[in-house]
Write a structure and sequence with these properties.
By secondary structure, the protein is an alpha/beta fold. The chain is about 35% helix and about 20% strand. The protein is built from eleven helices and 15 strands.
Amino acid sequence: MIRVLIVDDSAIVRKIFSEQLKKEPDIEVVGTAMDPYIARDKILKSDPDVITLDMEMPRMDGLTFLRRLMKHHPLPVIIVSSLTAKGSKLALQAMEAGAIEVVSKPGSASSVGELSRELTHKIRAAAASKRCNRKQTTGNPRVSQIEPETDHPPGTTTHNIIAIGASTGGTEAIKEILTHLPSNPPGIIIVQHMPPKFTTAYAERLNALCPFEVKEAEDGDAVYQGRALLAPGNYHMLLRGSSTQFYVNVKDGPLVHHQRPAVDILFKSVARSAGKNALGILLTGMGRDGAAGLLQMKNTGSFTITQDEPTSVVYGMPGEAYRVGASTKSLALCDIAPEIIRRLRQ
């Protein structure tokens, strides 16, 4: 059984979460708390496996509580946040502080049924997670200072594509890779499992940190050197065109592996449109989204990388890809950006 503690100042949210989670045979709600002070006592008493945490609460805000929790009693935490600009930015700060998943508050983006499916999936992912070994992803020289040889200024047509997919733990993993790339990489396209609005804030955050442009993708956006496009929450993203001009389609569609956007949708479109001119990277996450698509990329000549188990928060997605033979190389997170640069030099 996965033992869950719900921390939220809203009695309605606590009631909805409790009722929905009690329907799951492998999840037990061991308590609820309306603020961090009550939560602290219940953590010590009930020893939960996973905590859902609201960001805005009385007496102590969720971010402050999270930072203290990660320092003194680290546990897998799922952030529950409103679909506002402020809520999205707070959620990203929380993920940088150690939270591993985020869900939107009930009624703000989805029905209770959809929320229940999303929440239970993320609770299982959180329960399967482990804390990253940060020593493996820090302390290296910043390879972004090492520029590959190129005759193409930023903004020109890209002949190569870097496609990245991730889920649980992926926000920090993607940031680790992108911030260590040179200022003029080939066109990059990314799927990170996140709700709507949160992807907007995440793209803005990456854009402020990276030496190249990062934006949330819009339908018809061109893919070119010095630009990374992030699939918007609740929409699939596909690569179209050829090496003379790539662009993306952003569209609605059924959930794939319980996800929208889905990594498989992106990777399979990359295999069709870019083939051997693409590099596919599948990072930490629960489930098997991306494994079939990465295998298809490899079979069309793409070079493919999976994050290794020790540095993955959850080894589900990269592990499944490795199991089916979709991985050309399995690498620690800190080695992925240097490998990309080596490939560019070749």
